[in-house]
Specification:
4-stranded antiparallel beta sheet; 12% strand; repeat; zinc; PH-domain like; flat; DBL_dom_sf; single chain; FYVE_RhoGEF_PH; Dbl Homology Domain, Chain A; alpha+beta
Length: 279
C-alpha cells in the first residue's frame, strides 16, 4: 500500500528533527560544554567569549530535545488512528521566537571564532580536536552553527508541502493551516530581527562618518540615500564638491573634511524633510 503523501512529509519532518536534535546536541553538549570547561580551567579563552559565540543555543537544544521531538515522535506512532501534527507545531511556533536572538548573533559569533582562533592556539586546537571526531562528519564548527539559522525556513517549506498534500476532509486541515500561518509569522519575525540589526549597524557607521553630532543620532532614523553633489557658485563660476545624506526625516548638507581624523564629513546644513519641496 502506498503511504499517503502527507504522511511521508510528516515522517520527513520527524527524521530531519531527529538529525537536527543531534546537531544541537553537538553544538551545546560537546562544543559549548568543552570550550566552557577549557575557559574555566585555563587561559585559552574568556568565558564571556564562549557565551557570546553560542548565544542561547542551550535553550534551543533543550526545547527541541525535551519537548518538540518527543511530541512529534508520539504523533507519528499514533498516526494510524490520529493522523495529525498541526497541533504540535502550533505549540512549537511561539518558542521559535528564541531563534531571533541566535540568528541576530550569528555573524558576530563566526567573527569571534575567527579572531580567537588566531589569538589563542589552545582554543583553535580544541575546536580542531572536536572537528576531527566522527560526530562532526568532517564539517567545521561554523558549518554546524549555521543549522539553527536554516531550521525555521525548513519548517516553513515542509509544512507548506504538508498542507498542500492534505486531503480536504483531513482532521488535521484546520490545525495545520493555523500552524503554517504561525510559522510564517515567526519566520518573518526572525527576518525582521536581522533586517533591523543591519539597519542599526549601517546607521551607526553613518553617524561615525558624520562625527556623531548629538542631535542627529537617533536610532529610529532611516538612511535612504547618500552621495556627492557639485555645488556651482554663480559668483565666480567655480564648483565645489559637497555631500548629501537623505534620511526619512532630514537632509544633511555636508562638506568632506580635508583632514580625515575621526569624522569624514562636517554637517553644514540640516533641512527637515517635512517642509521640503522637490523641484
Amino acid at each position: 500500500v502506498q503511504e499517503p503523501e502527507e504522511k511521508k512529509i510528516a515522517l520527513e519532518l520527524l527524521e530531519t528533527e531527529q538529525a537536527y536534535v543531534n546537531r544541537l546536541h553537538l553544538l551545546d553538549q560537546i562544543f559549548y560544554t568543552e570550550l566552557m570547561k577549557e575557559a574555566k580551567n585555563g587561559k585559552a579563552v574568556p568565558e564571556e567569549v564562549v557565551k557570546m559565540i553560542f548565544s542561547n543555543i542551550s535553550s534551543i537544544y533543550q526545547f527541541h530535545a525535551n519537548f518538540f521531538l518527543p511530541e512529534l515522535q508520539k504523533r507519528m506512532e499514533d498516526w494510524s488512528y490520529n493522523p495529525r501534527i498541526g497541533d504540535v507545531i502550533q505549540k512549537l511556533a511561539p518558542f521559535l521566537k528564541m531563534y531571533g536572538e541566535y540568528v541576530k548573533n550569528f555573524d558576530k559569533a563566526v567573527e569571534l571564532i575567527t579572531v580567537w582562533s588566531e589569538k589563542s592556539p589552545p582554543f583553535q586546537d580544541l575546536i580542531a580536536d572536536i572537528q576531527k571526531r566522527k560526530v562532526c562528519a568532517n564539517l567545521t564548527l561554523q558549518h554546524h552553527m549555521l543549522e539553527p539559522v536554516q531550521r525555521i525556513p525548513r519548517y516553513e517549506l515542509l509544512l507548506k508541502d504538508y498542507v498542500r498534500k492534505l486531503p480536504p476532509e483531513s482532521p488535521d486541515r484546520d490545525d495545520a493551516e493555523k500552524a503554517l500561518e504561525m510559522i510564517f509569522m515567526v519566520a518573518k519575525h526572525s527576518n525582521a530581527a536581522i533586517a533591523e540589526m543591519e539597519r542599526l549597524q549601517n546607521l551607526w557607521v553613518v553617524y561615525q562618518r558624520l562625527g556623531l553630532e548629538d542631535d542627529i543620532v537617533d536610532p529610529s532614523n532611516e538612511l535612504i540615500k547618500e552621495g556627492p553633489i557639485q555645488k556651482i557658485s554663480t559668483r565666480n563660476n567655480s564648483t565645489s564638491e559637497k555631500y548629501l545624506f537623505l534620511f526619512n526625516n532630514m537632509l544633511l548638507y555636508c562638506v568632506p573634511k580635508v583632514i580625515q581624523v575621526g569624522a569624514e564629513f562636517q554637517v553644514h546644513l540640516r533641512i527637515d524633510v517635512d517642509s521640503m519641496k522637490v523641484r
